[in-house]
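Final report, Chapter 2: Outcomes

The project's central promise was a pipeline that accepts a single protein chain and returns its three-dimensional structure in a standardized token representation, suitable for archiving and comparison. That pipeline is now operational. To close this chapter, we reproduce one record exactly as it appears in the project archive, with the input sequence first and the structure output second.
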Amino acid sequence: MPRCTPRTTLDRLRTPRRFPKFLKAASICVLVAGLLSPLTQAAAAGGTAGLAANDYCGGQCSDILPPGENGNATLAQILLNQVFGTQPDHAEDQLGPYSNLAAGYSTLTDDKINTFFNDASFGVASDQVASTTKPGGRTDVTIVRDKKSGVPHITGTTRYGTEYGAGYAAAQDRLWLMDVFRHVGRGQLTSFAGGAPSNQGLEQEFWRNAPYTEADLQAQIDSATANAGARGTQALADANAYLDGINSYIDASDSGRYFPGEYVLTGHKDAITNAGTIDHFKLTDLVALASVIGALFGSGGGGEVNNALSLLAAQSQYGVTEGTKVWESFRERNDPEAALTVHNGESFPYATKPDTAQGEALPDAGSVAQEPLVYDRTGSAGTAKATGASATAAATTLTSAKRGMSNALVVSGKATASGHPIAVFGPQTGYFAPQLLMLQEIQGPGLSARGASFAGLSMYVELGRGQDYSWSATTSGQDIIDTYAVELCQDDYHYLYHGTCTAMDKVERTNSWKPTTADGTAAGSYRMQVYRTKYGPVEYRATVGGKKVAYTTLRSSYMHEADSIIGFQMLNDPDYVKSPGTFQSAVQHINYTFNWFYADSAHTAYYNSGDNPVRASGVDAEFPVWAQAAYEWQNWDPATNTAAYTPASAHPNSVDQDYYVSWNNKQAKDYTSAPWGDGSVHRGNLLEDRVKKLVAAGGVTRSALTRAMADAALADLRAEDVLPKLLQVVKSSPVTDTAAAAAVTKLSDWVTAGARRKETSAGSKTYANADAIRILDAWWPLMVKAEFAPGLGTDLYTAFTANLPVDESPSAAHGPTGAHAGSSFQYGWWSYVDKDIRAVLGQPVQGALARKYCGGGSLSACRDILISTLKTAAGLTAAQVYPGDDQCSAGDQWCADSIVQRALGGIKHGRITWQNRPTYQQVVEYTSHR
């Protein structure tokens, strides 16, 4: 059994209350001693692996992925962690360096970067080899793990052996997590891991989006490989070798009794007799996994029904003409003040507003009802918490405000000190224990890369570096999901398809669970049911012009979850990617909605991926349309869900722009994203402002660009970009009220200090300007409602908040990310407030709102509203603003913001201070090229 590390300065989570008392008793030592007797995995120490000769980064590539590479733990290790807080080797050794950047970035220099990051050079120096493994006793592959972080460096002499090793290493590091997510993708998590409300919500969220049968999963494999020629054949062979490696580890860990302890705690294995099984993985499991990842990060669009409801509310409030004008101003489809990734003025029209909309199928007022997913609840499935989790899952699935996250800062060599491009980039995939991503290096015939991959899909590196180039991605969110109104016939389960009454296809899952050591949720069960049409799954019922309809959602990547494997294969192929052009060609094969960034020693590049359907003339992508031939995607084949897609040249793309920034902001002029909020103030501005300033000064270094990222990671977007204008209104006349004046002083001092949410000193767990932060957190939602609700009216204000949440502060437990998730300020009304306040102040506004709202446009009335709500906010105590949760006591501001590694297994980690930055992150500057 690997050694356990002692407690660190990280704030430890307490033993969860759900664990039975016997796990907390002194007799635990006897139990652990007995569990130590099974054999642990053998690994030969030493080895001769050294730095690779095919590395052109010159020691200037770095990466980080908290909490640690090791995401597997035996039962003994889990029990020791729960009782004593000890950690398995490499389970959290990247968490401290990651966290420490928040306090250490201001004095960062190039030679200190790897204090906060890993050296991401290829290979392992001989004196840094921790272990060498020949998986399955094979002679054609070796897995070397380094001492510092335990990352697997997989080297194969055959393609099969290399991929076998990748599968084996993945199972070594993430077997339990992989098993969890193959069950999530199949809508079977509760039966596998327990019926906790969070598990119920998770499986419902993803199965509603991708209700696949086993035959559907297999068909996607057949289609993806058959349509890709030799690369498809190779991908299938790679996947099979990868599975062989996974299953080899399952067998070895089972017989050696060092498999993840969660299998015992959830009742799948017996700790004493070793009875029970761990099911082998199969090809369709990989597709189920891919469907989860695609839905989480790469499926832009949806929300058309919510858009329709808010448009109808606007027209009801103001009349059709004025209401439509108001709606469009809040939608900000192509706001002229929005931060752009391609900022050279080039236009890439997509999903733009048609001159005259055709085929719209707006619902009759009051007729919309969400399609139920869950039926026949029994036991704990019927509790308030369970039904609440279902409601949250449904809202998350059906909104256009998908989890965006991830950022990128890329600077051309023309602005750097060395003359070589520099990139600091990575995905924000949330914080989990173990992490969804895992690190690896893979070297073999046709494969040469190091970086991060989603667990269970790591036959290729998905984000990382090749021999002389690095790449990364951010979620883009352009609309590849449309909503169709299918007219019902005969009954509620038949619809008209091209004039023929056609039966809907019903797909079901029945799940049941009982209490286990890991999850004490009482026994329960339910049945999930989805009706599918040729136009996708049914999501709502309504009437349109008195006709009964079902609203369905059709996603271009639906039934094509496996297609992107070809693009990732190309990215790992050193004989394919050699330039910006070949990089762009590779990511064109990825059908999910991502922004892709590239840097080598001389060039940078950008490309926006996704299968963007070519819509029928006149169709407005914002709203539901009739399910009729005239309004279908061009060349759409319902049997395969394929269509005509916009050509690569129509996707935002660029080579060697002076710099690129992305934080899920607008990609380019005239390129409409599905989520709302691409306006004058966006978190992308936090990067844009800093990088633009660096580039203007010139001489950019790796440390300077990292500092810019880290500084933006601590910034409060509202305070940096909107609060100064609010204070300008408040200070337009002397503030005579003492309570309001004190609040204004605190807020002004915070803005002057930089508007950051930063500890007074490393580890203090107290913010500088804590009162100002508390006041703004309390003020923002009060102020927004008081500013807009009177003019919009209650119904329209409520409808607009369904399109775009008002706030997403770090401590918020609402919005797409929830609490303790790090990612913040993606969705909110900051642009609306900014534009409205500037209009009231008489300042020029491009793309202004259709009306002035604060105080009806009167500066003095607006000022009164701001001061009144400010006084109310300032009077709220910390305990009222931060009411506490299962992680924090009421009033603990730092804790309310803090990042928690959400447990997906038995190992727990400590909270870290808030940072709004990628989970996996690279810092790269190549010195030469092949």
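Archive annotation: DSSP finds 27 helices and 32 strands in the chain.
This record, like all others produced under the grant, will remain available to the consortium after the project formally closes.
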